[in-house]
Every structure is written in C-alpha cells, then in structure tokens.
Task: inverse folding
C-alpha cells in the first residue's frame, strides 16, 4: 500500500542549541505519521485504544538522520506498513522538507499489539485489512 | 514550612535555538520540585495517585523568567506551599543555578485535589499535615 | 486587532498518565499560536530572528486550565496582542477544542524584544504595525 | 572501557496515557548518559562544543524497549563507547530500573564529529583518549 502523508511545522520547542531539531523529536513525528496512516485507512487509533482496548506498544524504534530540520520548516511525514502480522507491525517512515523535498530522516518502528494490561495479543480480524494483513 | 530543594541538570533536549532553556521546561522542573516536596514530607505522590486515587490537577501555572538557564548547568528548584486548603493547594517555586545562586525563574502553580474521574474532592485527613493544613 | 487562529492535533507524546495533555504543553501551543499570529500579520518570526537578529524573549507566562485536552482532539489556538510597546509585547491566548468549541485553557505571555546577545532593544519601526503599535 | 552510570528519576511529563514512559524519552535519557560518560572521562561536552566548536551530531539512533519505565522510578543509564574513530563514534546504552535491576531498554547512537557549520571533521587528538581511540 502507498505511503500516507502527514504534514507538520517545526516548532521552536523542537529545536536545540545546535540550531536544528533535537533528534528525539523525529520519533514523535513518526507517531504523528502512524496516527495519520491509521486515519487514512479508516481507523481512528484513539478509538482502537479506548473502545477496543488495543494498544500498539512500541518495541523498537530507529532513525537515520540525513539532513537537519530547521525551525518553522514544513515537514512531510510519509508512513507505510513495512511488515504486518496479527501480533506484530512494522512501520517505515520518510520525513522530508515540504517545499524542496529534501529528505530529513528515515526510520522504522516495530510494534506489538497488546491489551489494556499490556499483554501481547492478536489484532482482531476487523482491523487487519487496514494494515494490509491478508 | 521551609522550601524543599530538588536538583537537576539541564539537558541538551531542553535547550532551544536561542541557546537557552526553552521556557515551557520550567513548568516540568516545577513538577520535579513538587514531587520532591511531597517526598520530603513523607508522601510519595505516585502512591497517593495510584493507591488512593488522588490526583493533583493543575488549574493554573505561571512563571517569571529572570535569567536564562543554560545547557549542563545544575539547577536547584526550591518548592514550598504558598496556600493550602483541603480542596486546593498552591505551590511557590524559585529556580536558581546551583554554583552561583543566580535566580533563573520564580513561579506558582495552583491545584485542585481530584478523584480518578477528575472530580474535585477534599484531601483525606491523613495527607493534610504534609501540606501544612491545620 | 482580531485573534488569529492556529490549529493543531493533540499528539500521543503530549498526554500523560492522567490520560490528558500534560500542562506544560499548552505553553508550546501558545508559541505555535504566536508564530501563526506573526505569519498572519505578514511577519515570519524565523526571519525576524535570523535576518534582523530580533528575539522575542519570554519573560512571563501563565496559563489557566479550564477543561483537559485529550489525545487526538483538534485544538484551535486563538492569539491576540494584549499590549504592545516598542520594547515589550503581551500576547493573550484562548485554546479550544475545535469540534465543540469547549474552552481548554486561556493564557498570556509577556515578551521583551532582544538582540542576539539577549540585550533588551526597541522593535524596529518596520515591524511595529504588525503588532498594533501606533 | 567500562560503562559509565548516570541516574535519573522518571518525570510525570515523561509518561503518556498508556501509563508508561513515552518511548521518545529514552533517546533523551541516552543523551543524559552520553554527557555523563564524557564527564566521567574528563570532558565537559558543553565546553567541547562551546570552546572548541566540536559538535557530536547524531546520525543514527535506535532503541529496543524491553520493559516499560514507570513514573517516579529511578533509572540507571549505562553508557559505553561501542566503536570509536576520529570521525565517528558509536555509543551503546542499557537502561535499567535502579532498585530491581530490571532492564528497561537498550540502544545505540552513532555520531559524526562536526564543526560549528556542521561539516564533518576529525576529532582533535587531545580528545581521543577519552573515547578510547588509540
């Protein structure tokens, strides 16, 4: 399935004294991308968590920083499902500056589906198509 | 009652591109001060929240910035109870650079005691002495 | 002058274990509002800082929390100039949930115009109209 | 060389509505670990950056989440140099809950030494021993 695009603008709070975006914020942007991925596929992650008690626990995250994002730049976060399994999901991401297309970073997160007590579980069938599970 | 002191060191993540600590972080430091205030008075805020279901909801916060905190400086957060009432609590704060005593900021937060559903409640009697309530 | 509206969506990272937005984030949202205020008045704050070396240093911030913002809600930040003077600026803010209009918080920040060395200065004449200075 | 230990306490601001520490914060803790690693080896990273204009730019970060950190827990961050080269440095990290030794996460960051304009450079000889470069 095609990547889903989310847009955000770099906040002053996200910069550090190097004059660029502090690197941990890219993980937050990936989360923004993930949520918009779900929304584009017809799932509101909030409801999945609140109503069905399904948590998408992060078990691994990584990010490669290509070019620093700067204050007030507009960023496009492209998100796709890299691997999908009823118990596990991997998302891939590419973040780019909107006006020039300059790639800022690429990343990946791996998740387990968990219940409210954070015990691993299988994703209920009704949600599987959204993540490209056969 | 005397102020309680907490110490922390400025993190790179807390700076912004002005080369100083981003102003919203002082509210986080006040929270650090609050928790240490409670601990010094024999209360672990975590347990108050988890075991007795008492939340200290923030209803007002303010901060006056006197001198910017810089990366890697050690900061002392002094916290005291400015006003105490079974339904309401106000904390006062002074933040200073540890080695020179340079005042960085002063602030205040106002809180309501709430139950798990965030409904206002009276603080149970057993906790009142810690906050200087008669 | 009329308030300027900025929109944002609550991020998971902005929530805390109370299940609501952590209170320090509202100061970050006010900053988002401020930047959009400037943009709507024809000023890109980034350029004011980078090209003309004018910093809008925060000297005071306060926030009154009315109703908690929740994860994934859309928030409107309304920003206006509460007081303007060539050396000082006060912004007022109201934050509301977009779909219902529920007020989340109101706040205020006070700023001094500073040069790159953070020394107070007068705002150059060309910028004054944007902030409603006569 | 042996790992260097840094200690920190989980802040309320670092939790999310899942009731655990939000995953991006572990990257901030790694940064805390890195700075203490440098200090233990006789280098104040702040001075290296400020006085010698050497930046330790992050080019890659990854984290594996083993067991969630909870509010108010004390965390030990163990940091070591995983690979060192005059142009590049990799740090390894293990984060554990202090009272029980429960492992929370492990991670790695890769850095390039850069000058003030963020151009890659070789680390000056005087700093090399601290990072175990021969």
Result:
């Amino acid at each position: 399935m095609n990547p889903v695009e989310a847009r955000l603008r770099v906040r002053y709070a996200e910069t550090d004294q190097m004059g660029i975006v502090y690197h941990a914020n890219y993980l937050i942007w990936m989360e923004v991308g993930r949520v918009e991925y779900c929304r584009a596929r017809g799932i509101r992650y909030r409801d999945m968590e609140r109503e069905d008690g399904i948590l998408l626990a992060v078990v691994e995250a990584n990010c490669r920083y290509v070019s620093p994002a700067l204050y007030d730049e507009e960023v496009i976060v492209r998100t796709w499902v890299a691997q999908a399994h009823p118990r596990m999901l991997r998302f891939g991401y590419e973040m780019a500056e909107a006006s020039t297309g300059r790639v800022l970073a690429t990343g990946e997160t791996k998740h387990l589906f968990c219940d409210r007590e954070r015990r691993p579980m299988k994703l209920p069938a009704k949600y599987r198509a959204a993540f490209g599970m056969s």
